[in-house]
RNA sequence: GCGGAUUUAGCUCAGUUGGUUAGAGCGCUGGUUUGUGGUACCAGAUGUCGUGAGUUCGAGUCUCAUAAUCCGCCCCA
């Protein structure tokens, strides 16, 4: 029997897991800072619930199985479970409802770089009844900006767009019926050459004029202000396009109002997002220097979250950090925000077994003051104990031997500097707390 | 689902036109007189060469099959 782990499932060594958890904690704390309440839903749901809104792709990727006569499936995102949750409990919830959820989701796809079969999504969503204020679309930007800043990651940009712009533009061109196919193609514009793009548009049956217009539209670039000015120049009139432009202007203005640097928010008219439930603002996040990581945080606004479960209308806006991908890519490029390698602040070692009692007593005293400490009971050469301390990366070492046990003055060694002091329990705690 | 590549020590890899006992670096274990680590030096262990078959006097090396892994496409965090 060979021990192995399924492909597409991430398993970490302790020192990596500590960094991963640190990132997860920063994300959760930041979400709460913005008033989002925690939510946890089951990993398993009835297959019919998860597949209720799916297109062909999710059905292909979802893990589904039968237990007895019941068709079950593992959640492939956190949005569909949220839609179910809202439909179930909306009478007991207070709106606008802000929740965050951090959990594993499952997709049975071909794992490749940055793609996993089991991965963490860190979601926030704001849901309201009937109408959801557009300022929330900007607040979502502020949350993501704050998370990435706190994680001390490389320079990043959140790219935003509004689906109504492109849909309205297609409406104007008289090709609204092709919207879904065109959106899919627009999403690929950065990956394929311009000629291929135009050729595929032609395959969709678009006239030359429409194709040129579309290309010109997508290629609009510049600062956010410049892009907005150019969009206004289109002068398409009322309708979806005007609505989208108005929303986009508000989001940009409010983002500025929330104090987000212009360098981190960029309008990009080619961002469309594949999922077809988005109806307004859409987001994708890339690192400036590492575009190959892919989007590490994406989302958008949807008009009617729970439409398959209820007739009530619940518009929402949300975004999700793909923590597993983010971590994996950062690790591969030596960019992990490493704070500490062990949960312990100090390791207590003894000269020999005779001092175990003293070590345990000291450990208890320190733990009572909320200081994480570990005691090494294994007896071996002193040098080995040092090596152990060194390898686990503990910042301080406490040494208890004959002298220390007698005087109650413990030797505290700073592992980084090598400096060593004799301190009583109280003074030692002060150093470890500081 | 379609296409391409890879597979040799725990990890990253080298291994000539097929030749006898399969290598390096890192890591690991031990040591350099046992209460002081990270550096250095010394010593050591570890492989069914992915698996199965074939060609050959002889296969890590050539052929075929199979599996696993990786990379594109599709889709997506």
Task: Give structural notes.
The strands form three sheets. An eight-stranded mixed beta sheet has the order 1-5-6-11-10-9-7-8. It has a five-stranded mixed beta sheet with strand order 13-12-14-15-16, with helices on both faces. The chain has a three-stranded antiparallel beta sheet with strand order 2-4-3. With 434 residues, the chain is α+β, with helices and mostly antiparallel strands. The model has no long low-confidence stretch (mean pLDDT 89). The chain is built from 16 helices and 16 strands. A hairpin with a 5-residue loop joins β15 and β16. The protein folds into two domains: 319 residues, 2-Layer Sandwich (BirA Bifunctional Protein, domain 2); 88 residues, 3-Layer(aba) Sandwich (Rossmann fold), CATH 3.40.50.800. The protein binds one RNA strand of 77 nucleotides through α3, β6, β11, α12 and α14.
Q: Strand pairing plus helix content: what structural class?
A: alpha+beta
- The level of helicity is 40-55%
Low-confidence stretches: none
CATH homolog superfamily of the largest domain = Bira Bifunctional Protein, Domain 2
- As laid out across the biggest beta sheet, the strand order is 1-5-6-11-10-9-7-8
**What's the count of strands?**
16
* Global outline: elongated
User: Mean pLDDT across all residues, rounded?
Assistant: 89
For this structure, the quaternary state is single chain
Radius of gyration: 27 Å
């Amino acid at each position: 029997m060979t021990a192995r782990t399924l492909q597409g499932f991430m398993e970490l060594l302790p020192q990596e897991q500590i960094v991963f958890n640190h990132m997860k904690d920063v994300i959760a704390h930041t979400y709460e800072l913005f008033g989002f309440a925690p939510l946890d839903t089951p990993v398993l749901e009835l297959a019919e619930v998860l597949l209720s809104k799916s297109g062909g792709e999710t059905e292909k990727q979802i893990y589904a199985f039968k237990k007895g006569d019941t068709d079950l499936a593992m959640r492939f995102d956190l949005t569909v479970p949220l839609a179910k949750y809202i439909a179930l409990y909306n009478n007991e919830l207070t709106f606008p409802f802000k929740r965050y959820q951090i959990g594993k989701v499952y997709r049975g796809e071909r794992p490749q770089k940055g793609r996993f079969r089991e991965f963490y999504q860190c979601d926030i969503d704001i849901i309201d009844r009937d109408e959801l204020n557009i300022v929330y679309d900007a607040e979502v930007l502020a949350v993501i900006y704050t998370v990435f800043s706190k994680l001390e990651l490389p320079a990043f940009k959140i790219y935003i767009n509004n689906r109504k712009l492109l849909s309205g533009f297609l409406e104007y061109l008289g090709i609204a019926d092709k919207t879904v196919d065109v959106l899919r193609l627009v999403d690929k514009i950065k990956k394929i050459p311009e000629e291929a793009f135009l050729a595929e548009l032609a395959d969709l049956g678009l006239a030359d004029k429409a194709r040129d217009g579309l290309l010109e539209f997508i290629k609009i670039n510049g600062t956010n202000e410049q892009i907005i000015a150019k969009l206004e120049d289109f002068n398409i009139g009322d309708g979806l396009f005007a609505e989208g432009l108005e929303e986009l202007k508000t989001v940009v203005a409010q983002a500025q109002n929330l104090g987000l640097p212009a360098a981190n928010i960029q309008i990009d008219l080619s961002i469309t997002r594949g999922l077809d439930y988005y109806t307004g603002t859409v987001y994708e996040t890339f690192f400036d220097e590492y575009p190959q990581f892919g989007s590490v945080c994406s989302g958008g606004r949807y008009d009617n979250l729970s439409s398959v479960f209820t007739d009530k209308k619940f518009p929402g806006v949300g975004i999700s950090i793909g923590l597993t991908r983010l971590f994996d890519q950062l690790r591969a490029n030596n960019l992990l925000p490493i704070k500490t390698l062990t949960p312990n602040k100090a390791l207590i070692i003894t000269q020999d077994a005779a001092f175990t009692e003293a070590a345990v007593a000291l450990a208890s005293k320190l733990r009572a003051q909320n200081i994480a400490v570990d005691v090494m009971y294994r007896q071996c050469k002193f040098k080995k104990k040092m090596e152990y301390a060194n390898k686990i990366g503990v910042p301080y070492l406490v040494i208890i031997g004959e002298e220390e046990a007698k005087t109650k003055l413990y030797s505290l060694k700073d592992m980084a500097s090598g400096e060593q002091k004799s301190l009583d329990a109280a003074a030692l705690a002060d150093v470890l707390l500081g």
